[in-house]
Hints:
The protein is 30% helix and 17% strand.
Amino acid sequence: MRIIIVNNYEEMSKKAAMMIASQVMLKPDSVLGLATGDTPLGMYKELIQLYSKNEVDFKEVTTFNLDEYYGINRKNPQSYYEYMMANLFNSININRKNIHVPDGMSQDVNAICSDYEEKIKKAGGIDMQVLGIGGNGHIGFNEPDVNFEARTHLVNLDEQTIEANSRFFDSIGDVPVKALSMGIKTIMNSKKIILLANGISKAESIARAINGKISPKVPASILQLHNDVTVILDSEAASGLQI
Ligand code: F6R
């Protein structure tokens, strides 16, 4: 694991955006795995900036998002599909056909999950996967007591996750309790992984993921076994680390 500690959120976002931009410059038809949530928002802003200065071109890029709420229509402003359109895709020249977010309204869960895996495989696998981390150590929506063998599947969200995500909804009762998520196996098959975390609320899960024992109780701890992970942390998120 390469661990980069920077001063603040802005620096974290800039570094992550530069890593993605370099990936796309070196391989214009890169397959990117993308995350939602607060953490990557600054990185997406930086990527839009780089695109508007003609420093990166997304015309041949393909993307696969980590997850989507189950039971939420993609037109719903709370959907992760809409988040991606609003925060990145509407502002860059990605081909809409190359955008993939699991369909949260699908009735046939098994079919949609295996189709998602098949599409990732057909695209040649994920070249670079961006991850955030939950306060409970989740990556994607792979919650504690995770099955490390799982691929894309339907998950029950942890209470801590529902509470954390209630900030995006009118009330906690409106937060979906299930989601479709890439599994740990899907994530671990990515060629390169960037894990981002900022703020003191992530210090404990980052310390457990990086310094702790590899355990299904801390899903992100499995990243210790991947051979190309870059962790970019602000000083607060890094404050519990022993390095
Ligand atoms: C989002 C995702 C989640 C988030 C994590 C952190 O697609 O898969 O694992 O990365 O919950 O969320 P934020 O960034 O909002 O703290």
